[in-house]
Write a structure and sequence with these properties.
It contains 20 helices and 20 strands. The protein has helices spanning 85-92, 120-124, 138-150, 172-175, 178-181, 211-217, 226-239, 243-262, 268-281, 317-325, 345-358, 365-382, 398-405, 426-445, 471-474, 479-490, 506-510, 523-532, 538-544, 581-585, and strands at 3-9, 12-17, 31-35, 40-49, 52-62, 65-68, 79-82, 102-107, 115-119, 128-131, 162-166, 187-191, 292-295, 298-301, 416-420, 455-460, 492-498, 514-517, 551-556, 563-566.
Length: 590
């Protein structure tokens, strides 16, 4: 027997040792079996002082299976002994390893020769998080885990779909040759570097975006701005189509805008200028500045009916009103784009500009100022380098767009799709990841057979995108929070990789079920992990600060108990090394 229980305080068992420690290996961090008549408990030796070992209880055996957590403390008469290497393998290791069901993660640095793995279902059917300071091994761990997953000898994860949003463009080197090792597996890359002709550019089909997406894209600040966005998107169904297809509707909406101006009560000069402005930009073959207006005895173009006489009035106001009324149609009803036709940023901008006019905001300086900010941002986007991401030559439906992402040029299924978002600023990268995530979420949610196409979205530097931001105040939800709350049932899962967990959305983090935590030193982040992560103990927090690079503490639904794991270096490794300062600085003296 290892010793006798002399005290129990909360979750710690104090055991008076009756063995000669000098004749034994270091037993710190080894596991102990505490057994009495009622139960078999497992604890970890976390400290030894004056011949008394402090043992942190972690779980118990029930009906031959290990269960994390304890229901009752042991009695003082419980026997104690170190768990043998063979027995520990059944707790930490993979004694009945099955290629289709299990995934090797790494080795135990405590028990030589014990491989630690995880049930693929328990890990990948839940959201997961990987935390660690810079240089602790996060990127290498992601690469190693995915290499282990896709380099299995006999079982091929052919139908896997893992989308990596790569903040620094690190992962291309780690996965680009996967196909050479396993011919059935394909890696695909997209980049935000529009000058790179070797890798396809990230593309965003504007016609697949919703009101919510446009609100995020234009950085809307309140729900009051959504109606004008909705109006603009409805107008796109008119302005982006061939005139012959929508002539009646287009005449109607232009006529209504002109009638609003005519009845606005503005000065004749203002009315004239506003109508000239509208019809100069928005017109049809039937309704424009040169449209002939017939009167008995003569005909004149519409623009001449806007002349102001010597009394300061538009003499033909009644004639104009009557003529324009003739273009109204009772059966015209605008609807939001349904993704069935293509339109551009320029089309959206034109629709937005007309929406401001048709809503009559020109008569209200305050409303105009509020809405005009959105138009200014849209115009800036139209004229920016980022407009290239929306420039798509051919129309694609949502299904075609998603199929293209998940398929290689050769028509094979792509298992890892990497989006290098290193070449855009954080604000646009954040919006881009949200738009892609929303499109995939809506897609899998509407599949005929639920959870038939698992999608894993892995976000490197997740704290930049998955935040406690204002989305819920503007559009009513945060897409990442929504995915973490609803995604499991549809098989769309998030993987959050971050060096600053304290900046992550609390809702998203609270829904994660598995954690790999590498070395962390920042006290704010360590404290945040203590508060937010379930089942974390003071002992785990102490270890976090002392971990070697490439070593993590893994725990959650996929692990039987919190496990110290040493991961092997990926081969090849991601491009995540620190700068070789001495190699750059120094040259040999000639």
């Amino acid at each position: 027997m290892l010793g006798k229980i002399i005290s129990i305080e909360e979750n710690i068992i104090f055991l008076k040792l009756n063995v000669n420690l000098e004749e034994m290996q270091n037993i710190i961090n080894l596991y102990v079996l505490l057994e009495d008549k009622e139960r078999k408990l497992i604890g970890e030796i976390v400290d030894i002082k004056n011949g008394v070992a402090s043992i942190n209880l972690v779980g118990e055996f029930f009906e031959g299976k290990f269960l994390f957590g304890i229901s009752k403390k042991p009695s003082f008469s419980a026997t104690s002994k170190l768990i043998s290497k063979e027995k520990i393998n059944s707790i930490l290791g993979m004694p009945d390893y099955d290629e289709k069901k299990d995934l090797y993660i790494g080795k135990s640095p405590i028990y030589d020769g014990v491989d630690i793995g995880v049930s693929i279902n328990d890990f990948f059917s839940n959201h997961f998080a990987i935390f660690g300071s810079t240089g602790s091994g996060k990127s290498c761990s992601v690469a190693r885990i995915l290499q282990n997953l896709f380099e299995k000898q006999n079982s091929i994860a052919y139908k896997a779909s893992i989308l990596i949003f790569d903040a620094y463009g690190e992962y291309h080197t780690a996965f680009q040759d996967l196909n050479k090792k396993v011919p059935e597996i394909s890696f695909k890359s997209y980049t935000t570097n529009t000058n790179d002709s070797n890798i396809p550019s990230v593309k965003i089909p504007l016609w697949l975006l919703t009101i919510d997406d446009i609100a995020l894209l234009l950085e809307a600040k309140s729900r009051n701005e959504l109606p004008i966005i909705e109006k603009a998107m409805k107008l796109v169904t008119i302005f982006a189509r061939e005139e012959s297809q929508v002539l009646k509707s287009k005449n109607d909406i232009i006529a209504r805008a002109l009638l609003d101006i005519l009845s606005s009560g503005n000065t004749p000069a203002q009315i004239r200028d506003q109508i000239f402005s509208v019809l100069s930009h928005f017109n049809t073959k039937d309704l424009n500045l040169d449209t002939p207006i017939y009167q008995p005895g003569y005909t004149r173009p519409l623009k001449q009916c806007l002349l102001i006489d010597n009394t300061g009035k538009i003499r033909e106001m009644e004639l104009l009103t009557t003529f324009i009324n003739g273009f109204l149609a009772e059966d015209v009803e605008l609807s939001l784009p349904d993704g069935s036709f293509k339109y551009t940023l320029k089309d959206l901008y034109d629709a937005f500009e007309f929406a401001l006019i048709s809503e009559g905001v020109l008569s209200s300086n305050k409303v105009f100022d509020d809405y005009n900010v959105l138009k200014v941002r849209l115009r800036a986007l139209v004229n920016s380098d980022y407009a290239k991401y929306f420039d798509i030559e051919e129309y694609q439906s949502r299904d075609q767009f998603i199929k293209e992402i998940l398929t290689t040029v050769e028509g094979k299924k792509a298992q890892i799709i990497n989006f290098n978002i290193n070449y855009v600023d954080d604000r646009f990268a954040k919006t881009l990841t949200k738009i892609y995530s929303r499109i995939f979420f809506e897609y899998v949610r509407n599949l005929k057979k639920r959870a038939s196409l698992p999608i894993h979205i892995v976000l490197e530097e997740a704290h930049r995108y998955v935040q406690n931001d204002t989305d819920i105040d503007v559009i009513g939800y945060n897409i990442f929070d929504r995915i973490t709350k609803e995604g499991r049932k549809y098989a769309i899962l998030l993987g959050l990789i971050s060096q600053r967990p304290s900046e992550l959305s609390t809702t998203a983090l609270s829904q994660c079920s598995n954690f790999l935590i590498f070395k962390m030193l920042h006290p704010t982040d360590v404290e945040y992990i203590r508060q937010m992560v379930p089942n974390i103990t003071v002992e785990i927090l102490k270890k976090i600060k002392l971990l070697q690079p490439g070593t993590c503490i893994a725990f959650g639904s996929g692990f039987k108990l919190p496990s110290l794991i040493k991961l092997e270096m990926p081969n090849p490794a991601p491009s995540s090394n620190s700068c070789d300062i001495s190699g750059v600085w120094f040259i040999d003296r000639k």
